[in-house]
Every structure is written in structure tokens, then in C-alpha cells.
Design goal:
Shape: extended
Radius of gyration: 22 Å
Strand content: 15-25%
Length: about 140
């Protein structure tokens, strides 16, 4: 039988949730299942992005260096035919997974991961209770 730890009377209870500092500026999650489907060896996409990140950090001004963590995981959801699914914190916050071409130049792949092109405007939600907004004739249709 487990008992609750005894605290001294009048002492503050410690929170079980804590945080710590890190030097990481970005985390990138690579789908290992997609990489395997493309015939890439284990860790290939990770090594490709890591080398490109090191080159970019070396070429960047000294004040703008950041640490990048690249992790291979299981399936991220979409299973593209000729691409590898990659996610970052920002892409997951936006509800998106990036699809990278494994044949792409490493610098282009890194740029696509760290600075993805933003849609011109968000795709409208067509739920049952969502009012339709009029789109001005000067504006192009939303990006899909």
C-alpha cells in the first residue's frame, strides 16, 4: 500500500510540473515510415537536414545561430507517394505536416522546413454553422 508523502505543517506543496531551459530553437520530426517507403536508409533524412543546418549555422552571422533537434518518429498521418512527412512545432500548431521531396537540395529542404511558405489567406471553414464570407473580386481564391 502506498501512502502520500508527509509534508511539514505550513510548508508549500511542490508542483509536479516543472520546466527547464534549453538551447534548442527548433525541433523537427521526420516520419521514418515515409523515409523507408522511399527506399532511404535509416537516419538519412535526419543526417541530410542536420548537415544542412550545420552549414547554414556556419554561414550565418554569429548572433543568429540556433540549435536544431531532428528526431525520427513513427507515422505522422499523411503517407505521400513520393515525399517524406516532416513536422515542426510551428507546423503542428497550424495543424499542418510538411511534405519534403527526398531528392531535393539539402539547403532547400531545410529552408522549406524552417521557413515554410504561408498561405495567402486561410482556407475558409465550411461547417454547418459557419457563415460564408464574401471574397472581394480583386482577391484570388484560397490556397489548398
Amino acid at each position: 500500500m502506498m501512502t502520500a508523502p508527509h509534508a511539514a505543517p505550513g510548508a508549500k506543496a511542490r508542483s509536479t510540473n516543472r520546466s527547464a531551459k534549453t538551447k534548442l530553437t527548433e525541433i523537427v520530426v521526420v516520419c521514418s515510415k515515409c523515409a523507408k517507403r522511399q527506399g532511404l536508409p535509416a537516419g538519412h533524412m535526419r543526417a541530410l537536414l542536420k548537415k544542412a543546418a550545420k552549414r547554414a549555422a556556419r554561414d550565418a552571422p554569429s548572433g543568429r545561430r540556433g540549435k536544431l533537434r531532428i528526431v525520427e518518429s513513427g507515422c505522422l498521418g499523411p503517407c505521400p507517394k513520393r515525399a517524406v512527412a516532416v513536422a515542426t512545432g510551428a507546423s503542428l500548431a497550424a495543424g499542418r505536416v510538411l511534405l519534403l521531396d527526398p531528392e531535393a537540395d539539402p539547403r532547400d529542404a531545410l529552408a522549406a522546413v524552417l521557413h515554410p511558405p504561408l498561405p495567402r489567406r486561410p482556407v475558409p471553414e465550411f461547417g454547418p454553422n459557419t457563415p460564408l464570407a464574401a471574397v472581394p473580386s480583386t482577391e484570388s481564391p484560397p490556397v489548398r
